[in-house]
Backbone:
């Protein structure tokens, strides 16, 4: 009886392990390639870290560095050259500026909106909410062109504003927070009104602190989506490398004379991914809570 | 001062009328209970007094001032909610300070950081601290001041909520079923504490409850509301002993009052299930309802007393009293009789029931009282 129980369980776990491997193998490849030399990558040898022999890298010398400078262990070279070739800190900084601004403005707009939709009685409230739901159905790609034209007319292409403005009103955020505010008892709001708070004070001093868990969930959705976004920055950042976000930056490593040098490319990808992985590990519990709370995905 | 009067208040949500032409005068220092079954509009009425809900028509007058267009916070009332509605992210101390800060501090003084540099704030902070301390002493929650509501038990939260209402020293307290989230023992205990608090504060209390026991035990006057109408406003004993209509008689008192169909003869004497009332009534109706409270009926062995026969179908033992649910005349008609714990009667036994005093109330079939 017990044995059969274990067989049943191990079957399930086996399947889950296979699933996990499928997800993890690309990560393994990425980390491994960022540490190995070009020859090892191409011959698929060397295991996870490779032999780490000190060698001179030809692409490096082609870029005008002396041979002495270009002689080192592969892992060191990959990361060193990635940072030499592209201003990765700048990209990370841009990513941070864009995602944080987007999130803060989204909260600034979504909280009063969702408070009104959840707790205030006014004519047309249901209609407004149905419009919010309707907007959830519009894919970004469908409105990308008109958005671009508008930004271009306003002279905002190649600015931070172009990266931020189109995302500041998050219907998903409004929807998510509205659903959360529905669960906040009316009495709490009535109590705040009796104490003498105005509606805006209620939003920022009562609803915001109460909604921290929901906001964290929303923050994860928002930050992950915009940190990883390649599509939109690719459209509105046409030439200015100083405004590249991390995903655009990775693209620097593709094409050109050293198009097939995977080591530094993977090293740059690892660098870009690390902040999200760290954030995920720190907020893992919240992340799972957030996903289960919204009932999405 | 804390007189509140309501004049012809009407309120409807969509097409449902919640309050119909309701007028009510509340005296200074009174403990007035608004009691009625769920959905009778009592909470709505309280919110209208508080200013959290706007009436469709009618006037709310506090201390001779019409406050129809005065904001909730400017009416100088304090409210205690059923779910306590403490700010969950603030400590009890901060919860108590909030209404005072909002009332006493100017806009600049409320600003974070900048506010600290305004000289007048220091004095106000001192008086706020004093008030918070005084209130917490009165309610015995001083040692809980630095905890958050989540770390408190139900009774402690109740006290903290009371404290938040008390610090403002309002003209009147509004309480919306404040005890209904507590367990039975604590609820009874808090009843007496609330009464004591009322006695020491001498402030007007308006207390909403659906529990008629709370209304009977605590209030100086109780207002019975059913279906958006104020049916009777009187002292608890008057309401209990002398209800103005059958609906009030049925709502107040537990177990529920018994009603019997009665015949009235032309000379005004009333007879029901074979018992004739001693008193004669002056009425033109021929049919009426007699209502008798369970404690005014008794199980008798005296065959000379006018009585009727009934079968015991269920026994409710409360320790001090036993309530017998009995079936009259083998029919489905059931009444409740109070018996003494001595001499238990078992289910299925036939007993004779008579009136213990001549206390019976007569109502028209439509529910109005015949006196």
Residues:
């Amino acid at each position: 009886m017990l044995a059969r129980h274990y067989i049943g369980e191990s079957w399930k776990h086996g399947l889950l392990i296979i699933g996990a491997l499928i997800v993890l193998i690309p990560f393994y490849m990425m980390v491994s390639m960022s540490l190995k030399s070009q020859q090892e990558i191409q011959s698929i040898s060397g295991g996870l870290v490779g032999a780490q022999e000190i060698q001179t890298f030809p692409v490096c010398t082609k870029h005008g560095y002396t041979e002495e400078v270009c002689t080192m262990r592969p892992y060191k070279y990959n990361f060193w050259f990635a940072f030499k070739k592209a201003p990765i800190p700048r990209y990370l900084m841009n990513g941070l500026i864009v995602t944080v601004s987007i999130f803060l403005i989204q909260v600034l707009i979504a909280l009063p909106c969702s408070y009104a939709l959840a707790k205030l009685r006014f004519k047309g409230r249901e209609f407004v909410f149905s419009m919010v739901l309707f907007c959830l159905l519009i894919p970004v790609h469908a409105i990308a062109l008109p958005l671009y034209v508008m930004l271009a007319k306003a002279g905002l292409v190649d600015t931070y504003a172009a990266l931020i403005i189109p995302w500041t009103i998050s219907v998903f955020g409004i929807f998510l927070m509205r659903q959360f505010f529905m669960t906040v008892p009316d009495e709490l709001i009535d109590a705040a009104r009796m104490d003498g708070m105005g509606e805006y004070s209620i939003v920022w001093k009562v609803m915001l602190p109460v909604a921290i868990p929901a906001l964290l969930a929303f923050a994860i959705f928002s930050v992950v989506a915009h940190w990883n976004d390649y599509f939109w920055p690719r459209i509105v950042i046409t030439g200015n490398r100083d405004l590249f976000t991390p995903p655009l930056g990775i693209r620097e490593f593709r094409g050109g004379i050293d198009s097939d040098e995977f080591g530094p490319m993977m090293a740059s990808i690892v660098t870009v991914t690390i902040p999200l992985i760290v954030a995920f590990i720190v907020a893992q519990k919240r992340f799972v809570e957030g996903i289960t709370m919204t009932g999405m995905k | 001062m804390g007189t509140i009067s309501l004049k012809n208040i009407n309120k409807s949500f969509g097409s449902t009328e919640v309050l119909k032409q309701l007028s009510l005068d509340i005296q200074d220092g009174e403990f007035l209970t608004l009691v009625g079954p769920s959905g009778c509009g009592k909470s709505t009425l309280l919110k209208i007094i508080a200013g959290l809900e706007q009436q469709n028509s009618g006037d709310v007058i506090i201390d001779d001032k019409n406050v129809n267009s005065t904001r909730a916070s400017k009416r100088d009332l304090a409210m205690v909610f059923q779910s306590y509605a403490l700010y969950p992210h603030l400590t009890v101390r901060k919860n108590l300070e909030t209404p005072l800060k909002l009332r006493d501090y100017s806009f600049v003084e409320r600003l974070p950081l900048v506010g600290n540099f305004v000289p007048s704030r220091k004095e106000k902070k001192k008086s706020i601290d004093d008030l918070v301390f005084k209130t917490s002493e009165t309610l015995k929650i001083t040692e809980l001041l630095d905890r958050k509501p989540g770390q408190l038990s139900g009774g402690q939260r109740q006290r903290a909520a009371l404290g938040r209402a008390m610090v403002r020293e309002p003209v009147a307290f509004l309480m919306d079923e404040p005890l209904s989230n507590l367990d039975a023992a604590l609820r009874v205990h808090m009843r007496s504490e609330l009464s004591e608090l009322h006695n020491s504060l001498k402030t007007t209390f308006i207390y909403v409850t659906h529990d008629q026991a709370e209304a009977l035990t605590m209030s100086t006057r109780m207002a019975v509301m059913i279906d958006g109408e104020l049916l009777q406003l009187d002292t608890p004993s008057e309401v209990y002993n002398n209800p103005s209509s059958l609906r009030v008689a049925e709502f107040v008192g537990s177990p529920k009052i018994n009603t019997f169909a009665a015949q009235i003869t032309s000379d005004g004497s009333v007879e029901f299930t074979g018992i004739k009332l001693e008193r004669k009534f002056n009425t033109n109706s021929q049919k009426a309802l007699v209502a008798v409270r369970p404690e005014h009926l008794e199980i008798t062995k005296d065959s000379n007393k006018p009585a009727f026969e009934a079968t015991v179908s269920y026994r409710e033992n409360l320790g001090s009293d036993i309530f017998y649910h009995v079936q009259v005349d083998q029919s489905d008609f059931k009444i409740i009789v109070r018996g003494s714990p001595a001499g238990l009667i078992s289910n299925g036994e036939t007993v004779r029931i008579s009136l213990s005093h001549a206390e019976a109330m007569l109502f028209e079939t439509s529910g109005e009282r015949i006196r």
Notes: The interface with chain A takes residues 47, 50, 52, 72-74, 77-79, 81-83, 85-89, 98-99, 102-103, 164, 176 of chain B (CB under 8 Å). The first strand of chain B starts at residue 4 and ends at 13.
